[in-house]
Amino acid sequence: MQSPIIFVTGTDTDVGKTFVSTLLVKRWNANYWKPVQTGLESDQGDTKTVMDHCIAQGEHTPICFPPKYELQKPLCPLEAMEYEPDIEIAMSDFCLPDDDSERALIIEGAGGVYVPLTKKLHITTDLIKHLIASTDRPFKIVVVARSGLGTLNHTLLTWEHLVSAGLKNHLWGCVLNGEKNPGNVNVLRKFGVNIITEVDFCPNDADLGTLVDNIPDVDFS
Fold first, then answer.
1. pLDDT digit string (tens) for 36-57?
2. Membrane-crossing residues (predicted)?
3. What residues are labeled active site?
4. Could you give the CA distance from residue 108 to residue 110 in angstroms, rounded to a whole number?
5. Whose CA, among 18, 59, 144, 167, lies 20 to 30 Å from 157?
6. How far apart are CA 141 and CA 6, in angstroms?
C-alpha cells in the first residue's frame, strides 16, 4: 500500500492544528508540509514548531518540506497578500513535494476549510481537491476542533461543508483538542462525525508521548 496523505484542517484559528499535526507526524513517523504560512512577522512558523517538538523528543526527525508560500502578516492568505504585492498565490502552483521516503505525509492547512487563499477566492477546500486530483496515494482529512462549549456548531458546519463538497469518502474524522467533554462527543457522533480521539492540553514535550499513543492506527487502503 502506498503511504497515506493526511490533510489537517480546523474549525477555527488556534484550535490546535499544529499540535495535532505533530502528534500525527510522531505517531506514523511521517513527514510534514505546510503549503501556506502566514504571520511570520510575529511567529517562527508551524514548520519550525513541528520540527522543534520532534527534535525535543529525539525519536523521529521528519522531513519538513518548506511552504510554497510564506507571508508576513498574521492574516488569511488573501488579506496578507495585500501587504506583499509581489506575491500572488495561484492554485495551479501547488503540487505535492517530491518524497521518496515512503513515509506518510501530514499536510497542515491555513486556518479552516473556508479560509480564502487566492485572489480568485479559492479556499482551503479547493486546495484539498486540487491535491487529491494530483495523486493516487490514499488521502484523508482530519478536522481539529475545540472540545468545549461552541464546538458543536463550528464542527458540524465544517463537517457538512466537506461532505457537500464531495469529500465524504476522504473524511477520516475529528480530533477534539482540550478538556474531555463526553456530551459534545456524544452529540457529534449522533450527527455522523467520526471522533478519532480526544487530546488534553499538553504543557511540555515530555508529555507528547502519552498523547501520541492515543492516535489509533488505521488502514487507509
1. 999 999 888 889 988 887 777 6
2. none
3. 34
4. 7
5. 18
6. 6
